[in-house]
Write a structure and sequence with these properties.
Length: 347
C-alpha cells in the first residue's frame, strides 16, 4: 500500500493580510496498513503521539515545542475527515483563513495511508514537509481520521503568533490611606491585552477580597487602619487561538495609616515691613506635620525673611492632612528701604 504526503506553507508580511496556501504534492512513499480509529479516545491518542514526535524532532533541532491548540485542531480535524470522505488527498484551500487571526505565518502538511507511528518520519524524510515541522511556528493543530477501508488521513496545520509575555517588570506603586489604598504596576504590554487577577489577604493569610481588572491598577476600600495586608497579583493574557498565559504571582505588603484625626495645618505667616531688619516668617508648632522651607524641614519658630520663601507642609507617618487643606505658602520680601520724610526745622 502506498502512502502519500503533501505540504503547503503560507506566509504574509503583516498579520492583517490573509493568504491561501499553495498546494505542493510530495513524493509517493510506501506506508503500512492503518487501523481504523472509531472512537474519540483513539483519535486523541493518535494526535498525542504525532504531537510528541513532532516536538521531539523540533527539540533535536533546538527549537521551541509547538503548542497544540483546540481552535487549530478543529481546522485540521475537519480537513482530515473531508479528505477521507472524498478519498482524495489535497490541501485545504481555506486553511489559512480558518486558523485564528492574526497569525504571522501559517503552514500545512497532509498525508494518508501511514500509521501514527510512521507519518512523522515520512514527513521528516521529505524536505518541504520537514521545513514545516522545523519551521518558524509557535502553534499546531492536528487532524486524524480513518476511512472505511482502514486508511488513515492526517493533517498538520501550523501557525506563528506573537506570544504574550505577562512578566511584571516593576514593583507596584501604592498610595495608602487609613481605610483604603490604590496600587499601580507598570508591565510589558503586548497584543492581546492583559487582565489582572488580584487577591487581598488579611494579616492571618485569609482571603478577604478579589478583583479582576483590565488595567494595571486596583483599589481596595473598607479596610482597618494601622493594619498590614498582603496583595497578590497575577497577570493573564490569551493569544488568538485561545491559549492562556499566566505571570508569576506578584506579592507585596501594604500597611494602612493609623486612625488619627485629620490635621488642618495652620498657615505659615509672613511679616514684610519696610526695610529688611524686621522682615520675618513664622512656622507654627503642630503635632503630626513637618513644615519645609524651600524644601528643607524647618522647626517651629520665627525666622528672618529674605528674598523668596516657599513653605510647604506634609503629614508625618501615621497622620493625614485634611482633604483640600492649604499646604503651600510663599512670599517675596521687598528690599526697598523705609523712606523717611524729615520734618521741617522751625524757627
Amino acid at each position: 500500500m502506498a502512502g502519500k504526503i503533501a505540504r503547503s506553507v503560507a506566509a504574509v508580511l503583516t498579520v492583517a493580510v490573509l493568504a491561501s496556501g499553495a498546494s505542493i504534492t510530495g513524493v509517493l512513499l510506501e506506508a503500512q496498513p492503518a487501523l481504523a480509529a472509531s472512537t474519540q479516545p483513539e483519535i486523541d491518542a493518535a494526535i498525542a503521539q504525532i504531537l510528541r514526535e513532532t516536538n521531539a524532532e523540533r527539540a533535536k533541532a533546538g527549537l521551541n515545542p509547538l503548542v497544540l491548540t483546540p481552535k487549530i485542531n478543529a481546522v485540521a480535524q475537519s480537513w482530515s475527515e473531508q479528505m477521507a470522505a472524498k478519498k482524495s488527498m489535497t490541501h485545504n484551500p481555506g486553511y489559512s483563513s480558518g486558523i485564528p487571526q492574526p497569525w504571522l505565518r501559517a503552514g500545512e502538511n497532509v498525508g494518508h495511508g501511514y500509521t501514527t507511528s510512521t507519518i512523522v518520519g515520512a514527513w521528516m524524510a521529505s524536505e518541504g514537509h520537514r521545513n514545516n515541522i522545523l519551521g518558524d511556528f509557535t502553534h499546531i493543530g492536528l487532524g486524524y481520521w480513518v476511512d472505511a477501508t482502514g486508511r488513515a488521513w492526517f493533517t498538520q496545520n501550523f501557525a506563528k503568533y506573537v506570544i504574550p509575555d505577562p512578566t511584571m517588570i516593576n514593583d507596584p506603586v501604592t498610595t495608602v490611606g487609613k481605610v483604603d489604598f490604590t496600587s499601580t504596576w507598570p508591565l510589558k504590554w503586548w497584543e492581546p491585552k492583559y487582565d489582572y487577577y488580584v487577591e487581598l489577604h488579611s494579616p492571618d493569610g485569609s482571603l478577604l477580597q478579589t478583583q479582576t481588572v483590565t488595567q494595571p491598577t486596583v483599589s481596595f476600600t473598607g479596610l482597618a487602619g494601622d493594619t498590614t495586608y498582603t496583595v497578590e497579583i497575577t497577570a493573564r493574557a490569551v493569544d488568538p487561538p485561545g491559549q492562556t498565559y499566566l505571570s508569576p504571582v506578584k506579592s507585596y505588603s501594604i500597611t494602612t495609616l493609623k486612625d488619627w484625626p485629620d490635621i488642618t495645618p495652620p498657615a505659615v505667616t509672613f511679616r514684610d515691613a519696610d526695610g529688611t531688619e524686621d522682615d520675618t516668617f513664622t512656622i507654627p508648632a503642630v503635632v503630626g506635620v513637618d513644615y519645609l522651607v524651600n524644601g528643607t524641614i524647618t522647626p517651629p519658630g520665627t525666622y528672618p525673611g529674605k528674598d523668596s520663601v516657599t513653605a510647604t507642609v506634609k503629614a508625618q507617618p501615621g497622620y493625614v492632612l485634611t482633604q483640600d487643606a492649604d499646604t503651600t505658602w510663599s512670599a517675596t520680601f521687598k528690599v526697598t528701604p523705609y523712606t523717611a520724610i524729615p520734618a521741617a526745622v522751625t524757627f
